[in-house]
Every structure is written in C-alpha cells, then in structure tokens.
Amino acid sequence: MNKRSGGEKQEDIWIAHTELAVAPGHPFYKRLNELLEGAGFDEFVEGLCARFYHARLGRPSLMPGVYFRALLVGYFEGIDSERGIAWRLADSLALRRFLRIGLDERTPDHSTISRTRRLMDIDTHREVFSWVLGLLAERGLLKGQRMGIDATTLEANAAMRSIVRRDTGETYDEFLRGLAKASGMETPTREDLVRLDRKRKKRTSNKEWESPADGDARIAKMKDGRTHLAHKAEHAVDMDTGAIVAVTLQAADQGDTTTLDETLCEAGEQVAEQIRREVESRPQDKAKVNLQGIEELVTDKGYHSSAVVQRMKSYEVRSYIPEKKPKGRRDWQGQRAEQQAVYENRRRVRGEYGKSLLRRRGELIERSFAHCYETGGMRRCHLRGRENILKRQLVHVGAFNLSLILRKLLGAGTPRELKNRAGQMFSRLLRSLSCQMTGGSFIRRLNRLTRLRMAPSFRCRPLLPARAFSVVLPRAARGDLRIFSLRP
User: Fold this and answer.
1) Global confidence as pTM
2) pLDDT tens, 396-432?
C-alpha cells in the first residue's frame, strides 16, 4: 500500500456536503445583509429587473440581488475591475455568504457580471441608487436643503498613443510623418519627429483627435498634472450629512459652468422623489427631507460666472460661489440683473455663514471623491463608454451612501475600517493603562506579555479613573486570553 511522504493524512475522495467547513461570515457583511433584507432589497430589484429575464430561453442568468451585491463588493473591497470582483468572490467564503452562494455553486464569472450589466439599462441602475437614498431619508441622513457640487477626473480605459484624427483617421505618428515630409524631411527619424512635435503649439485638441477605443473619452489634464484620456465625474453632496444625492458623468473637456446645471437638476429630481415617497408613506410624521427642496448651492471658484450666478437666482437657489481674482474693474453697463446677482453672491460668500459652508464643502465633497475613487478603486475606469461607466458608478456611489448608514450602526463604513477600529481600541486601552503607571516597568511587562513594542516614555494624559480595574490581554505563548488584575 502506497503511503504519502511526511506522514500526512490522505483525504477522502468523497465528502458529504454537510461536513464541509462553513465560515461564520464577516460581521460587516452580515450587518449589511441584515440592512438590505430588512428593507426588502431583493424583492425590489427582482421586480425592477423582471423585464430583462425570460422564464425559459437563454442560459442560466445571474440573479439581480447577486449582481448588485457583487458591484457593492467592488466599493467595500476597493476593487476597480469586474474581473477582480469575480476573483474576490471566488476566493472568499464570507463573500459567498453575503451573496447567498452555496459551497456547491459556482460564483459568477466576470463575463457573466459584464453581460448582466450590458443587458440592464441605465435607468434601472439609477432606480437602485434612488432606493438607497430612500434608506438614507428614512434614517434622517438626507436633508436636501444645502447642496455642494464639485467634479473630478477619471482615467479612461484608453491610451494616448492610440488617438486618431477625426477627419482622416490617421494615427499620431502618421500625422507627424506627413508634417515632416511637408517640411522637407524625406526620411525623418524618431528624434526628428519628437523635435517637430515640440515646436507645435496646440498638439492635441479634442476637436481634431479622438480615441478609437472609447469615443466618449476626452483628452484632459489629470489631478496629478498628466495629460490623459479621461472622463469627468461630478457629485452633488448634501452639506448637512455628506450623502451623495446625484452623480453625473460628463465629457472631460467640458467646463464646470457647462456641467453644473445637469448635476443640479439631477439632484433636484432626486430630492423631489424622496419628498414624494416620504409624503406617501408617512403623511402624519414630521418631514425629514426639506419640503422646499434645494435652497442653497456651494461650489468652488471654477463654477463662477455672472451667467451661472444669475441662473441660480432664477432657480430661487442661494449661491455661495467664490470669485476668481478679477483682472480689473468690470463694465456692468446693460447688465443690471447680472450685476445684482453677482454682488449678492459676493456678499453671501464673505459672510461668516458663507465661509463656514465653503469649509464644509471642502471637507465633505473631497471626502466623497477619496472614498469612491481612491480607496474605492474607481480612479481608473476599466470599462469603456459613458453608459457602461455610469452604470457601475451609480451602484458604486450607492455603496458609499450605504456606508454612511453602516458607520452609524457599526462605527465603520467599510470592512477595513471595522478591522482597524478593533486594533485602535486595543491600542488605546494599552495606552490608557500605561498612563496610570509610573515609569516604564508596566510597559516593559506588557512588551513581554503581548510582544508589542511601546515606548516607555511618551506624553499622554490619564483616561481611566485611578482605582482597581481588570484588563484582558492576549497571552504571547498561546492564542488564549489571560486576565490580569492591576492596581495603580
């Protein structure tokens, strides 16, 4: 009889399903599932997506609840691509439990996720985003009175070296070689082409060049100064709670004054929808969403123009838009209405209330960009086409809004933050205990017990009362717990 080397136990060929190891589930995703199930998420998306499914035809499809949960995982785990989401789902037992996929079932492949996204229209994804806003409104996390708007750039899934001329279809190298031959160079080298390109003033214009891979991408300068094909994401954020009320995806070459109206109108429609739902479901209760809708708008100086300020006044929205440094005195002859609107906006911005709103705008809006696109993993798009990117973006931003509710329930908005909170609490406990002791003998004792390295002398203040207390510390030799009674 053959034996395996090293004395290892040979596993059985067949094993019962009931004997498989079952993960207890991640506490964060367990609480998130309780939140979604309590609000009837699966019933809502199944009824919403019923028209995209057929009872008999086609291959086995992906359930709507599994599809949208998979996109939520992209935000909470910081995964940028659908292929990465599929790999993560197949690798984690906790995420299997979150998506309700048994151990005898296959997790969705990236092609299945992509195909399901293409079949569902953008209005369906927008309805899911609006449903999440309804959860925020029920918990008082959506006011809708003061709105802040700002934009950022997202790197497109297309390379600058692949751009072609809109009129002739020539690539960039072919275009440069044509210019070189026209200037008298019969066989230009690569160095000659680079030298010729540097002498040109306007080298890459969106009016002349386009990407054959992603026609909606535009040549733009990124936040770090690089020139790249990009898209422009614009957020409308509730200035009272930090919730993202609306998100739009614009062409990266459009100015802020051009895209402001679309984002503001989208936010106004979302607030009006939440007011309607609240009135229908709870007509006797006190309104949690502002019944007058959006009353104040806060942006940065990139959105300022006399036409924009005048339009905000015609919308009956008080604007707080700082001005750019003027080059000289402006002639207001024949522009009485614009002059009055600009002066009123300037007076509001210079007031204490306006300054506080501008400080809060920088805090809340930049935080939404950091969570959605930096730690959330969508700074670089892996999809092509405005509609495909916006579908993923709506669910991604909806996950950010769900994190506001979870931060209120658990104290953490992502699994990573929940894990760090536990370590921080233990570290604070050790620090508070060490502050009660004199000298470094207690810290050296903790170093021997917990294998932690803490400086014997650091500045701190007492956090616990000076009385006898007990603390639970992990033992260094084993993973069990040992209780010590300490008396200062």
Assistant:
1) 0.81
2) 999 999 999 999 998 888 888 888 876 777 777 777 7
The confidence band for 455, taking pLDDT boundaries of 50, 70 and 90, is: very low
Q: 426 versus 362: which is more confidently predicted?
A: 362
pLDDT tens-digit series, residues 138-176: 999 999 999 999 999 999 999 888 899 888 888 888 888
For every residue of the chain, which 3-state class applies, written as one string? Answer: CCCCHHHCCCCCCCCCHHHCCCCCCCHHHHHHHHHHHHCCHHHHHHHHCHHHCCCCCCCCCCCHHHHHHHHHHHHHCCCCCHHHHHHHHHHCHHHHHHHCCCCCCCCCCHHHHHHHHHHCCHHHHHHHHHHHHHHHHHCCCCCCCEEEEEEEEEECCCCHHHCEECCCCCEHHHHHHHHHHHCCCCCCCHHHHHHHHHHCCCCCCCCCEECCCCCCCEEEECCCCCEEEEEEEEEEEECCCCCEEEEEEEECCCCHHHHHHHHHHHHHHHHHHHHHHHHHHCCCCCCCCCCCCCCEEECCHHHCCHHHHHHHHHCCCEEECCCCCCCCCCCCCCCHHHHHHHHHHHHHHHCHHHHHHHHHHHHHHHHHHHHHHHCCCCCECCCCCHHHHHHHHHHHHHHHHHHHHHHHHHCCCCHHHHHHHHHHHHHHHHHHHHHHCCCCHHHHHHHHHHCCCCCCCCCCCCCCCCCCEEEEEECCCCCCEEEEEECC
Residue 352: what pLDDT?
Answer: 95
Domains of the chain: 19-120 (no CATH), 126-159+231-326+334-382 (3.30.420), 416-486 (no CATH)
Residue 303: pLDDT above 80? yes
40: closest CA among 143, 139, 141, 134?
134
The encoded tokens of residue 470 equal: 């007990």
Q: What angle do CA 326, 330, 332 make, to 5 degrees?
A: 145
Contacts (Cβ under 8 Å, ≥6 apart) of 288: 137, 138, 140, 142, 143, 278
